[in-house]
């Protein structure tokens, strides 16, 4: 059996710790080519460019562009014969239905689906709280070992098991490793529908705030069993099998409106 080939991208940038940790883990058993943003492109969704400067990098290629740019550039021009696209490891979870369209990490996987290439988006939940702000945590590649273990397992086994015959991509969220080193369980989930965005207006400025993260820190979440957020808060690896194209259904009420349109 020939060695698997992987296009590896992300949205935190090619120099991020999580990206290198995943590159090293996957390179143990696969031919990995990095096609990733040169700088942090977090939360850009599926934003596309018309031109993106490419710079050769020791891991592959760095693009002055978005994660979606990287997927298209990689599959069309830079490494067109890969078996799979893997995006991550994002520092911070990408959970909940409302996040999917915002996340650059997830969007890179969505873009791959339109090429009929299996894809995995991988993120790591970094709990808030304590004396250190969450964005200053997870600075060592070893902090990502739970996520890299899950990624390696799924890359090696998911396609052969027929997983991608029923979905286009997997959205995976892993916890940080526990102090005792015990591996986390893996749970198949669906995106939570909890939405708790707020906006306040004051003196000509609007402040937008996502209260979900604070609720996760205190455990104050109504998400039922089976959701991605519930699994992550409980310390499990969440794996959501998802489809990329927007679905549509027959709507009799809309048919009636169309028939009376003048």
UniProtKB/TrEMBL annotation:
GO terms for molecular function: 5'-nucleotidase activity; metal ion binding; nucleotide binding. A divalent metal cation binds at residues 11-12, 42, 90. Its EC number is 3.1.3.5. Binds 1 divalent metal cation per subunit. GO terms for cellular component: cytoplasm. Gene3D superfamilies: Survival protein SurE-like phosphatase/nucleotidase. The keyword Nucleotide-binding applies. SUPFAM superfamilies: SurE-like. The keyword Cell membrane does not apply. It comes from the Archaea. Residues 6-189 form the Survival protein SurE-like phosphatase/nucleotidase domain. InterPro entries: SurE, SurE-like_Pase/nucleotidase, SurE-like_sf. Its cofactor is a divalent metal cation. It is found in: Cytoplasm. Keywords: Cytoplasm, Hydrolase, Metal-binding, Nucleotide-binding. It catalyses: a ribonucleoside 5'-phosphate + H2O = a ribonucleoside + phosphate. Nucleotidase that shows phosphatase activity on nucleoside 5'-monophosphates. Belongs to the SurE nucleotidase family. This is 5'-nucleotidase SurE. It comes from Haloferax marinum.
